[in-house]
Amino acid sequence: MLATAEDDGLPALEEAARSRGPRAARGYAATGFRDPCPWREDDGWYLVIGSGERDKGGCVLLYRSQDLRHWEYLHPLAHGTRTGNPAPDSVDRGDMWECPDFFEVNGQHCLFYSSENKVSWATGDYDKETHKFTMKRTGSWTGRQCLLRAKALRARRAADSVGLGPRDAVAAGLCRVGLGGRHHAAARAHHRCAGSA
What's the pTM? Predict the structure, then answer.
């Protein structure tokens, strides 16, 4: 569903007619499909969705739209391999990635997703012509690491003139996005640090 605000104060929302939202590609054996994260680029709207493919592993899928109502599937923005870890839930097994966020900080792009009881991150280059993301650095954060990094970042954040390195960009992102998920202690800890960073 879409809703449009009358103005920036969000006093009222006008609900739009039901639209055809993003769908998994035909023949795609999805282990999950949720948590859209949209952004605007010069040539339209883009959106990532947390997903996974049965017997292959978790992934983040990329879509494009001109009107926010009709979406074209492009390709996986990032994907992992199946871990085979025993767990009843596809997220805990690594077969599904959820709560993705994708954004730019100081000229480099950051991708976050949650899986296997942690928040994983990647920084790298995003080609706006091909819409491909090349990971250069990756890692994962527990809830405690998120809190400690947020405190360190807050201490360094006297002015925007302070350059952010890759780890700081990740911490800034963790403390600005909603990576909540019922499965993930790290994501829940993010909400505790969001207000203090």
Answer: 0.70
